[in-house]
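Build the 3D complex.
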Amino acid sequence: EAAVTQSPRSKVAVTGGKVTLSCHQTNNHDYMYWYRQDTGHGLRLIHYSYVADSTEKGDIPDGYKASRPSQENFSLILELASLSQTAVYFCASSDGNSQNTLYFGAGTRLSVL
Amino acid sequence: DAKTTQPDSMESTEGETVHLPCSHATISGNEYIYWYRQVPLQGPEYVTHGLQQNTTNSMAFLAIASDRKSSTLILTHVSLRDAAVYHCILTGANTGKLTFGHGTILRVHP
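Done.
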């Protein structure tokens, strides 16, 4: 049974619209992350969180907000979606003792038109 | 974090042993070597990691050169399920902030 679940699995959004991507983990991990992957490229870190109610900026945070209302849930919010945000988004979690061992979800494929 | 160099692609046949190389000539003393793999339409999957000593688990054997400037991920008895992009990643900080490159595409033939 998947321990990191993302929803939706795919979404089509209009330019300028608001998009919320959700992530739920049952690993009991404190750390959660949002990465994006563009076709043919590696993953890049957008936002991450060490604890509920707190988020940190990753390497490419512009245009994105994050929300961590509980240990299990971590959302990525695109307030004004743009064409350049078309990508696959991956959520991941890790525990405090081995933060670099990440457990990823299956991804959300976002197309902004 | 230091940079890694991997071949773009490698080919293998089911049942063979595959050696996936990774070069990291500028690795720092505190940097760990992590390997992840990713199949299409799925998120990356942790494979293994090491600092200085060779390591082994159910998925792979990681051989680290004595000078730590290179490492090799060894997959034994590969199956079609092992076909994936394999990423070699260096990280010195225990932060979960990983930098993924292009990796090596491993193709496995029946």
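Chain A has a mean pLDDT of 94.
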